[in-house]
Amino acid sequence: MSLQRVPHVPGLLFDPTYFAPVACAGLLAHALRLYERLEAAVGKGGASERARIPQPAYVRSADHNLASEEHFARVTLTEAQGRTIRAEYFPRYGEDGHSLGYFQRDANLPNFVRDELVPGVHGLVASEGLVTPEQELTWKLTANFYRRANGRVAGFPFHVDIPSNGVVTMILNVQREARFQIAKGGAVTDIALPVGALLLLSGESRYEWKHRVLPSDAPAGFPVHPVERVSLVLGYQ
Asked: From the CB of residue 19, how many other CB atoms can be counted at a distance below 10 Å?
């Protein structure tokens, strides 16, 4: 399996069918349960702390961009077999309807990410020559949960992923199609992310281009679950 290179955006790689539907369904079930556990933990009274999210000037000057300061709670969860993992949970991140859980280092990865995601993506980045197969990596997970706000499913404003999140950003879309946009100067590229897609940002696309996920029309009817789109973002050092 190999990734397609996106023309005109150095370092941006794409596979629209990385996950089969059955794999997406399993990952989605795990992710929605993770969201519920994070929400419950915050509901028990976790202290709110400020996080400084440094962004380059060309992002800060955009009309729609990520604020430099967000608030989070430190959360402790118990996995199967009694594993304790810790996360920083942002009940609102970027805009209304978007929540984010950040899990740093392998010891804090949820079981389903450690066991079902990391081995495959490690092999993938090795096959692309970004790491060697035997290279030990320190993984980080950002779990993005998007809900309905103001009649639309929320998005993620323009931003650049900070270096501490890893040298590569891998976006795995597991619930609903989304529109990803990446820009530098006057150059803007739109990519439809179907369910099961994997998008990888490395090199120039990772550090010199800003990117966002646009809000989308909400499906008709009452939502089955408050979260209507999930993306799992992996990075490594």
From this structure: 20
